[in-house]
């Protein structure tokens, strides 16, 4: 089985491509509560947030009931804008803590989506097109390794990996998950798309205005990127920055389309 978490669609697209190659069923971690059947293997697909695992993925690995999970191989396929630090090592520790077999770990470079700090923005259209054009071949290679039962780590860790994952990531998890700076600007039309599609139910509608209630925000930024009128802001950090959703670029970049589109 393939278990994925996705904010803007990158990891969902990768999960679907892996499923197409290896034939395993795909489940969204944001909506699945448990399983009754045993899997032949488990592939965890998720984005890298601040050089570590997103909160919903950490929670899922720690608590999800997976019949037979201790008898099969587990694989990590993480999407990242540039590099993943030591996220693969974090994933291995969590998997082994459950008594599961952590096999191969891989990264796939996809378009950057993080806009919540100064100096961070979405990629240029040219860079987005280049990354999306390259990812299907990368995923096919990873699928072959998964099928072969590979146990290696084929990841882009980047420079200063220890500092990023061992110092910055814990600070991000402790202080960077607050949804308090989120707000809707006067451009908001009250369509409710941000609330309907929030994977952690952090966004709710109060009348015709969205309200970020602060609980369990994963900083996936789906509310910001999916807003059709660009009316979601994160304090002043997102001022003048772009938006990105996988589906918006998939066809023009010649990428696999996503059935059952994200908002």
Q: Could you tell me the number of beta strands?
A: 10
Low-confidence stretches: 258-263
Please identify the structural class as seen in this structure.
alpha/beta
Approximate shape: globular
The helix tally amounts to 8
- Cα-based radius of gyration, to the nearest Å: 18 Å
Assembly state of the chains shown = single chain
Helix/strand order, N-terminal first:
EHEEHEHEHEHEHEEHEH
How far is it from the N-terminal to the C-terminal residue, by CA?
Answer: 24 Å
Kindly estimate the percentage of residues that lie in beta strands according to DSSP: 15-25%
User: What kind of sheet is the major sheet?
Assistant: 6 strands, parallel
Strand order of the largest sheet: 2-1-3-4-5-6
Question: What integer is the average pLDDT?
Answer: 93
Summarize the structure.
The chain is α/β, with parallel strands linked by helices and 263 residues long.
Task: Give an overview in words.
This protein is of the alpha/beta class and 263 residues long. Strand 1, helix 1 and strand 2 form a beta-alpha-beta unit. The longest helix is centred in the middle third of the chain and has 23 residues. The protein is globular, with a radius of gyration of 18 Å. The C terminus is likely disordered.
Chain-wise SSE layout:
Elements: E1 2-4, H1 10-22, E2 26-28, E3 42-47, H2 55-63, E4 73-80, H3 87-97, E5 101-109, H4 125-147, E6 153-154, H5 161-175, E7 182-184, H6 193-196, E8 203-206, E9 209-212, H7 222-226, E10 232-234, H8 246-250
Parallel strand pairs: 1-2, 1-3, 3-4, 4-5, 5-6
Antiparallel strand pairs: 7-10, 8-9
Helix pairs in contact: 1-4
């Amino acid at each position: 089985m393939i278990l994925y978490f996705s904010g803007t669609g990158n990891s969902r697209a990768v999960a679907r491509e892996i499923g197409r190659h290896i034939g395993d069923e795909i489940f969204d971690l944001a909506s699945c509560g448990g399983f009754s059947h045993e899997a032949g293997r488990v592939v965890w697909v998720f984005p890298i947030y601040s050089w570590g695992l997103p909160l919903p993925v950490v929670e899922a690995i720690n608590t999800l009931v997976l019949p037979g999970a201790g008898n099969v191989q587990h694989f990590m396929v993480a999407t990242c804008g540039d590099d993943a630090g030591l996220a693969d090592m974090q994933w291995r520790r969590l998997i082994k803590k459950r008594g599961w077999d952590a096999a191969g770990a891989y990264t796939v470079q996809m378009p950057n989506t993080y806009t919540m700090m100064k100096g961070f923005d979405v990629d240029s259209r040219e860079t987005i097109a280049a990354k999306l054009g390259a990812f299907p071949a990368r995923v096919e290679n990873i699928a072959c390794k998964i099928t072969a039962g590979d146990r290696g780590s084929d990841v882009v860790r980047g420079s200063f990996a220890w500092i990023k994952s061992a110092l910055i990531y814990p600070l991000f998890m402790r202080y960077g998950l607050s949804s308090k700076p989120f707000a809707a600007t006067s451009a908001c039309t009250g369509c409710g798309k941000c609330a309907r599609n929030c994977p952690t139910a952090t966004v709710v509608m109060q009348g015709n205005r969205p309200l970020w209630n602060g609980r369990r925000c994963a900083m996936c930024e789906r509310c910001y990127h999916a807003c059709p009128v660009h009316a979601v802001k994160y304090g002043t950090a997102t001022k003048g920055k772009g938006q990105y959703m996988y589906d918006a670029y998939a066809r023009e970049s010649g990428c696999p389309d996503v059935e059952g589109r994200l908002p």
